Structures are given as C-alpha cells and as structure tokens.
Amino acid sequence: MKLLFPNGEHGPAELNPGITHIGSGAGADVVLMAAGIAPQHCEVHMGGSGATLRLTSAANAVALNGKQVVGDSAIKPGDIILFGKIGARVVASDKNKPMPSITRPPAAEDVEDGRTKVRQALPKFILRGVSGSTFGKNFALQGTMTVGRQPDCDICIPSDEVSRHHAKLQVMPDGIAVEDIGSANGTFVDNKRVHTGMLKPGQELRLDTVRFMLVSPALEMQKIAAASDTAKRTAVSAAPATSGGGIGKWVIIGTVLTALVVGGLFAAGVISL
Question: What are the pLDDT digits (tens) for 45-89?
Fold first, then answer.
C-alpha cells in the first residue's frame, strides 16, 4: 500500500514492511511540513496481517475516514487520512502488480489516475475544533454523521457538556445541515440556538461550550490561488518599464508575489506563526 497526497505536500509514499514514521521532523520517513504536524506525529506499522495506524501522542490530530484516531486503527486501500490539515488516501501499491495482457487500446476504465481519485475522495468540509478538548483537531465530514459523547458516534467528544447523542450533521452541496437530536444544552450556529439549521464555511458550530469552525479545503485553495493571481497582476502593473532592466523588474514581482501569497496562506489557516 501507499499514501497519495492530492495537494503535493509529499510524493507518493510507499508503506513498506515495518514501521513508517510520519511527522515534521527531519528523521521521519514521510516529512510533512505544516502547522499542527508534530515532529513524530504518527506511525504506520506494516506486517503480514495488514497495516495499522498508531499515534505517537494523544495530542496529535489524525482522522481516519472522518473519525478522530484515538488508538491503533487498521487501514486499507480506499481509506482517507487527515494528518492535521493534510489529507491523503491509502491506495493499493502497484509495485508487484503484474502487467495486464491487453490486445485492444486501453479504455478509460483501464487507466488509473491516482491523483485525480484522491482529489475527488477528499472531504468537501472539515470541522475544525477551536475550543476545549477538540482544539486544533480536524474532523472530516462525509454523508450523514452523528456528534456526541457516546463512543458509537461518528464524532465522539468526551465532554460532560455534550449529550450522548447531541446532533446530526449531513453534508449538502453548499454546507452542512445541522439537526439537534434532543441535546440537553443545545446546538448553536453562530451563537443562534437551532433545532435544524444550515452551517456554511466560515461559520461556527457550538455544542454548549464546545466550538468548531466549518472549513472548506477547496474554498481555501481557491482563495490562495486568487491571491496569487492578483499578486501577479499587481506586481506586473507596478513594475517600472525600463529598457534592459529585466532583473530589477523580476525582483519586484517576486517580492510582491511572495508577500501576498504568504499572507493568503496565513489568512486561510494553512500556515500560522
């Protein structure tokens, strides 16, 4: 098996027999340089019985198929893993895959484009914890999911303020449909108590005192791309027209472009100080 990263944070990472160390430290086998990634974030143990994902610290945020990882978790091809804010998909390795015998031109279904499939499989929306025990943790939202204190909930929040089965969340085209399912302390969207409501990217979901922010990774990437395009146009229009002074012009363009793109990344929460 191997890990594919859709946004280029790392190349395809083969999960070889033994232990694959994942983190931001220089000694990691898969180095992920991003805010929220610990030097030794987690490990993948690969053996004859399959692969197991293991946290090196309970404080490290890792989600598997939308559920926060709290102990050893078996992984298989098709699974989606979030290392902090970095998404990856587990796919079958083609290292020892025999070449198919094809006597006709390959049809579209014969061609495997792992990068495209990963982009389609990544969650459209993420709940990002901004308070309490969930602070800094990301929960990928897929289909219909329940939130509550009970371990059988899709998103388990071990907090006394949260009911056993607190709310139901359903992914919609433009946001998340929120339904309170009889909680004791209420469900709130931007501090307005709701029985049913719609949560949009950038808005806050609150379960009594436990707060989340809804994030759309695709929208964040679009904002960053738009900031880059705007920076490029601004830099080109602001650069003085000089004959033969090409080096000075490109220094100005590079400086402005770098500053604006970094600013966009910071504002989107992709990087932090």
Answer: 998 888 999 998 888 888 888 788 888 999 998 888 989 888 888
| CA 69 remoteness from chain centre | 14
Residue 138 phi/psi, 5° resolution? -115, 135
Best CA proximity match to 47, nearest among 18, 87, 22 = 18
As a whole number of angstroms, the distance between CA 204 and CA 226 comes to 24
Question: Taking the model in full, what pTM does it have?
Answer: 0.46
250 CB-near residues (< 8 Å, 6+ apart): none
**Res. 263 pLDDT band, cuts 50 70 90:** low
Contact 69/83 with Cβ under 8 angstroms? no
Please give the full DSSP string across 55-104, using - where no structure is assigned: ES-TTS-EEETTEE--S-EEE-TT-EEEETTEEEEEE---TTPPPP--SS
Question: Percent helix, strand and coil across the chain, each rounded to 5?
Answer: 20, 35, 45
Neighbours of 177 (CB within 10 A): 14
Cα end-to-end distance, the chain, whole Å = 35
Residue 264 DSSP symbol? H
Alpha carbon distance 180, 207 (integer Å): 9
